[in-house]
## 1
Amino acid sequence: MRKLHVKSFGCQMNVYDSNRMTDLLTRDSYMETAAPEDADLIILNTCHIREKAAEKVYSELGRIRKLKREATRAGRKVIVAVAGCVAQAEGQEIVRRAPVVDMVVGPQNYHRLPALLAQAERGARVVDTEFPIEDKFAHLTPPTAAAIRARGVSAFVTVQEGCDKFCTFCVVPYTRGAEASRPVAAIVAEVENLANAGVREITLIGQNVNAYHGEAANGRPVTLGHLMNSLAEVPGVLRLRYTTSHPRDVDDGLIAAHRDLAILMPQLHLPVQSGSDRMLVAMNRRHTRAEYLNAIARLRAARHDMAFTSDFIVGFPGETEEDFSDTLRIVDEVGFAGAFSFKYSPRPGTPAADRQDQIADEVKTERLARLQECIERHQSAFNRNCMGRNLDVLLEKPGKIPGQLVGRSPHLQPVQVMAPSSLIGEIATVQITGIGSNSLFGALCSTQAREPALAGAGG
Ligand code: SF4
């Protein structure tokens, strides 16, 4: 049987897409290999978010060129594909610049891989980055129980793709297209399949997941809160999460879901990017600082133990020291449990990249250091507050030390605990006895036989 190696870069959506490509190709003609040098088909599933993303792909392709040359010398044909957001953004340019590449496949087109592969095997160089009219998901293969078990007790499920927001720094609307949502029934079926094979935690993913507006059984579109209510009834699912959300799409239904569904974890990643209204307008974020804080307050009123994480960009074009102070203030006001923060870096083709008032790199570096110090102060306080408390931890996998398991708290903190591997997939009560830099340490108190809970326990 021929061998497939998929290398995934970037976000959870790419991890999910890589798994679905693997499911599709291992259905009949390929088996997976972790070693690219053994593979007959190599797929790079690329990400366009990072700086110089395309250049990094070309240098990775340089390494693959050597592997392909050696395989050819040994009389073995290797097909190389570039998928994901760089494939979408660069298209034909990739086959022009990198003769090693046989196929370029956009994120909306990978359901066509078997047909494209057949063309590539006949010697054609194939580029497929048109946004298709058919539903990609309807053409994919569900993962086998063995594949699901190998991927662990926590799984991602894409429910929404694309973005209509056009923030002035972001390439997603150009690479992933307009907002589109999968129907409720298809998502429920996928979650049932995962839960039947032992998955206990589902994270719903989408570039703008809370803009979800998929079709319900009656043909009408419903929101993410409604979808969450349907998924809470799937037997075996113990926890639900979702990411990434946009502040503008935090609606009453989502807030009610946090209030009513105990299996919806009290944690939300809600990017704000800046605490300055002037910068939020320049970024075309379509929400104000006050609206963001109001969404946080309403979620906390619905569920008092909500924890929030966020994303920040410092040194966006035109950012003054006063704008930056507003960002520091919003970190203090919300008290984030954690956040990702980056220096602004221009993405070709986005409006902000063309602005003349770019900020000097040393200013960005200095502001980033101050912001990260502020974020870390709040994150440490949040973690210290867990000391001595009993937390429900979903035990996910073996830790680095023999006899140790690693799991996640309701607030997504990694927790290390000595516990038998038979407890993987269970929720255990763990008393927190230590705080590390990236995780908590705890002692096992008990495991709980749990049914998925509905209603009222969030409080
Ligand atoms: S909402 Fe998110 S994905 Fe959409 S353009 Fe803005 S940053 Fe990009």
Note: The first strand starts at residue 2 and ends at 8.
## 2
Amino acid sequence: MSVLVVVEHDRGAPSDASREALTFARGVSEQLATPVEALTIGAGGDAAELVGECARFGAGAVRHVAPPWLADYAPEAWGDAVAAAVRALAPRAVVACGTDRGNEVLAQAAAALGLPFVANCLDVRVGDQWHVTRVQWGGSLNEDAALSSTVPIVSVAHHAVEPAPVAAPATLSATGLDVHLDETGARTMIRDRVVLAEGVTLATAPVVVGGGRGVGSAEGFAVLEELAGRLGGVVGCSRAVTNNGWRPHADQVGQTGTRIAPQLYVACGISGAIQHWVGAKAAKTILAINTDPEANMVVKADYAVIGDLHEVVPAITAALGGGGGVT
Ligand SMILES: Cc1cc2nc3c(=O)[nH]c(=O)nc-3n(C[C@H](O)[C@H](O)[C@H](O)COP(=O)(O)OP(=O)(O)OC[C@H]3O[C@@H](n4cnc5c(N)ncnc54)[C@H](O)[C@@H]3O)c2cc1C
């Protein structure tokens, strides 16, 4: 009987999402006085680096489900694997990170098991009935809810928890879990990958310089590119920008774009609509540059410069000289 953590990975490469899930699960396991057990699914799920990370973040055991046909991420098959693991291991609870994948897999598993699933939790209080606080409406509302289930299935809101390793990790190897999975579950599976950007990406960059409608044109992004380059970061944008065709959708920050968590987000000419804010709010520090002192982004930012971005951004770049960069 354990808290079973569904570990997200990319063909064996661990992700911060899984470190967050394991850290959150430790809080649940302490309340239940039961150990944390990691579940890895698919090719690479028994990779030494991944298993080591599971141990480093508090897992006491790693179970691995990988039929030969499960070569890559497949949402239904991963959901089937979680359901099969729940039947085989009878855990006290199941936890994953509330990324698109984590929520997709837990939703599939919960449907297969006929159990409720609570997504994007910030906190759980364990009892006969669980009480959970979860994020709703793209982060604009926290909801307190009660959960009654034989096996509570919850995801922790992405970026809500700072991953924290344990002081004394166990020495682990992955143990195969002998469960039958139907190959039809792999009808949707990643077959190929196209690399759109090498190196630092929007999701992982330590600095993002974002531009909104206030930038005014595709050409207007040149000064943002220069500042981002000086700071060792990348350029992002709002949906107004992608709608105007000034930048590709891959650069969009927000609810229907990428959720970023850089050390520094410089938001230039972006009003800070909730759909944008939800993708930017995990930034450690936000600097807003805007002509409107009442703009939502200005009000919510840690720092703001009220002024024309076409003057302010080049002035910051010039002031940085040859230095800059955030690590
Ligand atoms: C279902 C749904 C999903 C959505 N998903 C997303 C999403 O993922 N990401 C997203 O960004 N949006 C999303 N949106 C759109 C969102 O609601 C906003 O419309 C959008 O974020 C606005 O973009 P913006 O801030 O660039 O433009 P605006 O709201 O027009 O703001 C422009 C800002 O620029 C400032 N400004 C103008 N000129 C200058 C200047 N020279 N110097 C400095 N500041 C200046 C203005 O004061 C203003 O604050 C979504 C909407 C819906 C309905």
Note: The longest helix spans residues 16-32.
## 3
Amino acid sequence: MHEMSLAEEILQIIEDAARHQGFGRVREIRLEIGQLAGVEVDALRFCLDSVLHGSLAEGARVEVEHTPGAGWCMLCGMTVPISALFDPCPRCGSHQVQPTGGTEMRVKDLLVE
Ligand SMILES: [Zn+2]
């Protein structure tokens, strides 16, 4: 499952940060998930629950911020908002839209103690 490997990646990032910054507990994890990243937030939360179990981030609150999707329409020659991959351009209806924003997921911030 896609979300399970994402959850494992997140734990990896947290453990690396803990090593470098020397913190022992994580109270809150803030994630930024793009509207076009194809991440099921509920599934990700579920996977994080099991992946973080027994780790330094066990029981941490998971906050998710959504970044809006955007694409470059070749016909309009401009950036347009899109809410899903392969959505047509909202201005001209063309499908020649290259996703340019909101395609990523990243760990934005950690609240540690
Ligand atoms: Zn267009």
Note: DSSP finds two helices and six strands in the chain.
